[in-house]
Amino acid sequence: MSVIAIFSGIFCSADAVVRDVMDSTGYRMITDDQIIAKAAETSGMPENKVQRAFSAKTSVFNKFTHEKECSIACLRLALATELEKGPAVVHGFSSLLIPQSVSHMLRVCIIAETPYRIEQAAVVQGLAEKDALKQIRTQDVDNAAWTETLFSAKDPWDINLYDMVLPMNRVNVAKAGALIEENLIKDAVRRTNASIQAEKDFVLAATAEMALCRAGHDVSVTAENGAVVLTINKQVLMLTRLEEELKTITGTIPGVRSVNTQIGKDFHRTHIYRKHSFEVPSRVLLVDDEREFVQTLSERLELREMGSAVAYDGESALTLVAEDDPEVMIIDLKMPGIDGMEILKQVKTTRPEIEVIVLTGHGSEADRKQCMQLGAFAYMQKPVDIDELSETLKKAHEKIQRFKP
Amino acid sequence: MSKRNAILASATRLFSRNGFQGTGMAELSTITGAATGTIFHHFKNKEDLFLQVLNDVKESILDQFDRHQQTRRDQKGIERVEGVIAFYLNLAGSMEDQFLILHRHYPYQMAKTNPVCRSHLESIYTCLLDIFEEGIQKGIQDGSVAVEAPRQTAMVLFAMVDGIVRLNTYRVYDAGTLYDSLMVACRRLLKGGR
User: Fold this and answer.
1) Which of A150, A277, B25, B26 has the smallest number of Cβ neighbours within 10 A?
2) CA A338 – CA A331 distance, rounded (Å)
3) A3-189 architecture in CATH?
């Protein structure tokens, strides 16, 4: 009686394999949605915020709020509690949250070569190649961000992260299911006293992590037989004091036998930020009702490592501003409904820290003046030179970085 | 004053005014009248000299607070904290060079790689925060202070007071004019929002 942890790429027939495995083993399924719902319930955080942990896009305010770390902590706790109920197939991002010490777990990766995925996208959802590729790319970026967050592994399909990797372009669904079942009865994934203890320790570590996160701390937590080890990654001068506080918080959790702190490898590094947060803006919101134009622009920015979101009208743009914390916006002036000028006005009033670049096809000198007066960062004419636009985006990003508290 | 102490005193002044990079042994030699050889006889190198200066800063600040604390045993908690704040501001004025060293960036950069530097700084801050926390704890006992998290409050309070000192050190503003407002704010913080 074990746990099957499956992490998969989109359009790789993973759902069919999961169904096959559940049919033959009788295991119940644990999905990301269940874990998210449970995590949201216990933590009091809204579901959409918890879910954001699985996204490559981190809120620009995460440095202060630690929202991502908190979300991961409560997801871990939700999963750990769920696993205690017995054997299961865990499918999705959550599957990677189970520590390796829980050795009665078979870690499976389901992936395929791109041509197979494009074909599946056409069969399952009737997607054209271009749309399929776009979805695959978006999903893979999220997958890569997830493995990087958890294991500092940039390749989400890295064979070292799993017990078995199933290339679906070479094995069919039935064969994949059979391979999983075959490995499931091997001795290595049997439940042992040690692995059962490891499962308990998983719950304990997750509980501690959650408590520490709530108090604003960002440390990684492991537990072995009730002995908790906290790893401090952030440079702090008053280390003794920090350690005392961490120990006090953790010490009150039932089941904790001892607490030790250690210094992580990043402790002495000055910058532990990822490189993408520096030179270029990571969150650009493009607002334009000319769909074709804005899609192309988004793709071209992506090539320059700038992540962008797209809104086709003013209303959804303002919703995205409220929910998704963009750093920089690029807006067209002429749009039906709420037009560019109105968006600019509202954004600069409610969220002055967002830099707005106006990009328009038929603007007049008077428009330019008005935009700059309203606080636009730049005013540019279509057709725009992509290099010039990237340069402007970089400058906007620099300005934001400079004025960040 | 011994030669060694004379060198230390001048070095404190130079380090605080000119920073670590900007302090030269030749200049120190001119000011103190001690040959560079003599300076290097007492101190291994510039870093060692700086660590001695920092050690001095540590000892003199801690010593001052020790003496201050001795005389205030019978005060109520809140009065004690207020006394510490006033004393801190006063000390920052009378030991400006020493405080300026603490408000410079390079000691903290050095602390990342130099354990001695790190330990001096940690001792200074631990001691200062302990004094604040002690007053708060006493106040909780005698009912003059109402806060939930004494240790965290001590840190917030300290940051406020030290921030005012910085305004003065960097000549951002005449901190003396903020004294009353600071005291009102601290009192409010300590008495709780209830």
Assistant:
1) B26
2) 12
3) 3-Layer(aba) Sandwich (3.40)
A3-189 and A275-403 in the same fold: yes
CATH number at residue B68: 1.10.357.10
Verify whether the Cβ–Cβ distance A268 to B112 is below 8 Å.
Answer: yes
Size (chain B), residues:
194
Residues in A 259-288 with any Cβ partner in B closer than 8 A: 268, 270
Substitution target in B54, B122, B162 with the highest count of A β-carbons within 10 Å is B122
CATH number at A275-403? 3.40.50.2300
Residues B122, A268: C-beta atoms closer than 8 Å: no
Phi and psi at residue B147, in whole multiples of 5°? Answer: -135, 155
Please provide the DSSP assignment of A282-345 as one string: S-EEEE-S-HHHHHHHHHHHHHTT--EEEESSHHHHHHHHHHH--SEEEE-S--SSS-HHHHHH
Q: pLDDT tens digits, residue range A113-154?
A: 999 999 999 999 999 999 999 999 999 999 999 999 899 888
The secondary structure of residue A10, as a DSSP letter, is T
Q: A193-263 has which fold? A: Histidine-containing Protein; Chain: A; (3.30.1340)
Q: Using the 8-state DSSP alphabet, how is residue A2 labeled?
A: -
Confirm whether B115 is domain-assigned: yes
Q: With contacts defined as CB-CB under 8 Å, which chain A residues touch B121? A: 237
The rounded distance, in Å, linking the Cα atoms of B89 and B168 is 10
Which residues have C-beta within 8 Å of that of residue A402, sequence separation ≥ 6?
A: none
Which B residues in the span 117-136 are in contact with A, Cβ-Cβ below 8 Å?
Answer: 118, 121-122, 125-126, 129
Distance in angstroms (rounded) separating the CA atoms of residues A304 and A297: 11
What secondary structure does DSSP assign to B20-50, as a single string? TTT--HHHHHHHH---HHHHHHHSSSHHHHH
Residues 6+ apart with CB under 8 A from A27: A4, A21, A87, A88, A89
A91 contact partners, CB below 8 Å, separation of at least 6: A6, A8, A14, A18, A29, A30, A31, A32
**Mutation for B interface: A241, A267, A270, A271, most B CBs within 10 A:** A241
pTM reported for the whole predicted model: 0.64
Q: How far A212 CA sits from the closest chain B CA (Å)?
A: 15
Range of the domain at B100: 46-191
Q: Say whether residue B113 is in contact with chain A using an 8 A CB cutoff.
A: yes
Interface contact B111, partner A, CB < 8 A: yes
pLDDT, tens digit, for every residue of A59-112?
655 655 677 888 999 999 999 999 989 899 999 999 999 998 998 999 999 999
d(CA B125, CA B106): 16
